[in-house]
Amino acid sequence: MEDASNGVREVILKEVPDWDSEVTVSARFKAFSGQRSDWEPRYQFWKNLIIKIVRHLGIFIIRPSVVRNVWFNQGGLVPLCIDHVLVELYNSGDLLCSSDLIDPKSGQLTQLFHKVRHLLPLSKPAFPLEDEFIVSSVLQEKSDEVVKLISEDHWTSSFIITMSKFQVICGGPKQASVILSHLFKCGRAKYVAIRRNDLIEGVKVSLSSKTISGATSSDYDILHLTWTAEKLQLQIDMIDQLCNKSKTSALASLKSGNKVSARRHARELKLQSERREKCDVLLRRVEEVLRAIADAEDSKEVFEAIKSGTKAMKDKMITIEEVQQCLDDLDETITSQKQVEKVLGSVPPYYEDFDEDIEDELDKLMEESRNTSAAREHETTSETAESLSNALSALKLADNDVTVKEPTEVSNVSKVLELAPS
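The chain above was modelled as a monomer; its predicted structure follows.
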């Protein structure tokens, strides 16, 4: 609590340098009165300050009693307008209460009733009698951060994660429940559970902008395997602690000359080592199965992408031959551009020393053009057209002699398109 108070004090002094001024305190702390336009600037001040403090503390759940009596307590003086500020934040949707959230663990009927109740034009209560509220804007930011953390090691469209690991990423069970409810409302997460001897809970998270699909039998299998792997890892960690303890006790017994106790601890160490080896072998097998499933999912994603591309080509009446021709033309253009850049790069910058000679030559050419008669203009134009035609013919012949190397990236794309199913 003391660290949080120091963090709040730090933000306040940074954002409001004159916070301790007695003149400004009396003006800020007084209650709202009159028309909204009269107290709107002060309301925006308190709103922005509360959101900045929440972001600085890394939280999105606040308690009005703490906001009123701890955050903004100025030597026993609290803002008389803070309750009004919280009411306005709740009415505008900047604050949410627990009843505004959908429980993803509830049945479909309960979820449907909750949606219908919030769609009906019912009057919203002035301020619920609750002591915890959620800052909606910061909740959105935290939810995006959680999805980003989960997607760092995966590029598939969705991922199954156990509830225990999801809670660790979110910062605790309470925060995980709120974030899961928000993601569920946005269509980006689904609650998954296996009810057997042990309740296995998990979350199916969408790692793309698409709406998450319902849980499949494969999702339940992945959840069970992931839960098993985590449980085996915990068992291995516990065995390691026991092994270290037995090893330390055996060494202590040897130093004290108690060989009987040392042998007993040595036997315990051997048994624990054998248990650890068995758990480790089983863990590696489970991880191999999970990797095989992940590879299969990746292959499926690639196949679906190629299939979608082929379908789009058919819908647009584009054939493989036309695409290949475009790619070949692109290959030639890239190669020619590289050759031109190479030639231009090899030309020494000698022309910088001859600027004056060039200017003189240009002056002479301008003088000759002024002395040219209008009667010869048509003849000059014909000769120029004939020269241009000859030059283009020569250029075409020269292009046919250029050896074009296969570019690496574009050719690889063409090879992939050749493998696409028709």
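Residues 46 and 205 are 35 Å apart (CA to CA).
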